Amino acid sequence: MTEDDPFLWLEEIEGERALSWVEAQNAATLARLADARYAADRDAVKAALDRPDRLPFVTRRGAHLYNFWQDAAQPRGLWRRTTLDSFRQERPDWEVLLDLDALAAAEGEDWVWRGAGTLPGTHDRALLRLSRGGGDAVVLREYDLATRAFPAGGFALPEAKGGADWLDRDTLLVSLALDAASSTRSGYPRSIRLLRRGETPGEARILFETGVESMGAWGGVEREDGREILVFQEQLGFFDQAIHLGDREGRSRRIDLPTDLRLSWQRGWLAAQPRKPWTVGGVTHAPDTVLGARLAEVLAGEARFRTLFTPAPRRALQGFFWCAGRLVLSVLDELRPVFTLLTPGEEGWTSAPVTGLPDIGVVGLRPLDEREDESDGTLLVMAQDPLTPPEMLLTDIRLTAPAVLRRSSPAFDASGLAVSRHEAVSTDGERIPYVQIGPRHQEGGGSGDAPVHMTGYGGFQIPLLPAYSSTSGLLWLAKGGTAVIANIRGGGEFGTAWHEAGRRQGKILSHDDFAAVAADLVRRGVTRPGRIAAEGGSNGGLLIANMLTRYPERFGALFCTIPLIDMRRYTRLLAGASWKDEYGDPDRPEDWAFIRHFSAYQAAVAGRPYPAILIATSRRDDRVHPGHARKMAARLQSLGYEALFYEPAAGGHGYGKDNGEVAAFSALGNAFLRRAIGWETA
């Protein structure tokens, strides 16, 4: 089923026939689900997302902490700043820099915030990243923080995927996918240009360019010891890159290291993490080993690498970063967060644990300062678990005892609930961990009839960790239900090996893992198949679509969101070509031989006992094409199934562009799931 696909017309995102179909589908879905209970849930979730004492996420630039804030009064949001001393107070004194609601109203645009970069040193000018409707493509506009206005003659770059970095007050380093000539097949920028004030992007001089088959090219700038080094990142594939160091004249030299290495450097020292076994200095290092060396020696081809971290089964590197000359490692040890601080030196590297942090739930650690050359070594900690709202702590590279900076208020009543860990056994015997959140008496089993909400992801080496969720808490847990997070292969919970086991040919195993967790919930006496509702988005939407076609007997209802589904055509749709390393290339017969087994669009057939399904997407999703969701719903309906469909007009690759849209999307999906499993009657 390729070009003879009878539903290809639904790939015309703004096509008249396609939009007419979408509107009819939306009307039918809302008529069925949008009752008073849905409205109450929507309003409760929105109120929780808007609550004034939730945690404001901050980053420091110069003397100020910057934050973007959305609530009921400012649904699009305020960009604002304060000082660290003020932020410590119960009611910080916020200085509003930009009112996005007012800007959108004045300009008649559906602006969605996508961040800002301020001018190094003075931080008096910013490049705002504004998206129309929430897509990945953005408009870049210069903004004067002193006058709170767009200055005359300021930078104003047209809508495109890509970005820009300040070189100086009148010069930008830009990477923009403006048209076919400046874009890769994946839809990302091919070239890196030097843009001077007064020039158009087309007039800007090209400093670096990659091939059309590469994923893309992005530029950045490093400033150390008063020197400026331009960094040209050539993304050859999703997991392969070449790094080139250059200057404003277009001269550059490639760092001569394998393309699968993840590299990061600071103050003359470099850290490297291989994705594949790497032999260097006569020693072969396993994937996810961390190695350190002097940057100058690496550039000269004379590096003497030292081993800084060695992975072990179920002890996996999650990432690393530099802060004021120290290297911080983030590790999951049996899914418990562990952080280590490493200090480089001529005689070797010293190591010390970062202590005083929670060892359960989700813990994040990063520099408080956005810019390394402005950092004083302060580290910001974010900690949470499914029943404990996020809290923010401060520590530093001197390993000062972490001190609580702010805590979020709870969004739901967690009394009587407990978190427990379990393992299922997949089809090949692999142990698959999962987290269960629900009534305390169900930790060891249950009544066999619990309403269960399952979620999973299993792709791109992204771990799915048990964070605090206002939505899950209000729409499922607070109503007496049980939530389950499955740590299936393809994710990053146990490092590169866990991901490798669940990509390409292994994607089938990743989906088997999720079905195995559903079966284990039944085996343990928690529930029965008809009471299991599963939800997943993006790559997780592919997962859910495959539960429909491959394991329909294990679920009562499915909520499939912003999904990939038609894997025969995915590389031809928007950013799909950039994901060949994850899924394979369907145009190669040897790859299609395994891809076809997880392409649910082709696998769907009539006459099977498929569970109830709601497929939802966003019209402004310019990453995963909405045609995937549209076509799957149309195909299932043509086969005689009562598949529901929902597509809001905005939102990008997510559930909405503001708290109201996110609340409506989630409330609708959960209303569907609860009714479909018989927990809530229509």
Notable features of this structure?
14 helices; alpha+beta; eight-stranded mixed beta sheet
Short description:
The chain is of the alpha+beta class.
Give your account of this protein's structure.
- Helix content is 20%, strand content 34%.
- By secondary structure, the chain is an alpha+beta fold.
- The strands form 8 sheets. It has an 8-stranded mixed β-sheet, sandwiched between helices. It has a 7-stranded antiparallel β-sheet with strand order 5-6-7-8-9-10-11, covered by helices on one side.
- The protein starts with 15 loop residues before the first helix and ends in a 6-residue tail after the last helix.
- The mean pLDDT is 96.
Mean pLDDT: 96
The first-to-last residue Cα distance is 37 Å
Strand order of the largest sheet: 30-31-33-32-34-35-36-37
Alpha-beta content class: alpha+beta
What value does the Rg take, in angstroms? 25 Å
What's the topology here?
Layout: H1 16-33, H2 36-50, E1 59-61, E2 64-69, E3 78-82, H3 84-87, E4 95-99, H4 100-107, E5 111-118, E6 125-132, E7 138-144, E8 156-168, E9 171-177, E10 191-196, E11 205-209, E12 216-224, E13 227-237, E14 240-246, E15 252-254, E16 262-266, E17 269-273, E18 278-280, E19 283-285, E20 290-294, H5 295-299, E21 306-309, E22 315-323, E23 326-333, E24 336-343, E25 350-353, E26 362-367, E27 378-385, E28 388-396, E29 403-407, E30 417-425, E31 431-439, E32 452-455, H6 470-475, E33 482-486, H7 495-500, H8 507-523, E34 532-537, H9 539-550, E35 557-561, H10 580-583, H11 589-595, H12 600-603, E36 612-616, H13 627-638, E37 644-646, H14 659-676
Parallel strand pairs: 32-33, 32-34, 34-35, 35-36, 36-37
Antiparallel strand pairs: 1-2, 2-3, 3-4, 5-6, 6-7, 7-8, 8-9, 9-10, 10-11, 12-13, 13-14, 14-15, 16-17, 17-20, 18-19, 20-21, 22-23, 23-24, 24-25, 26-27, 27-28, 28-29, 30-31, 31-33
Helix pairs in contact: 2-14
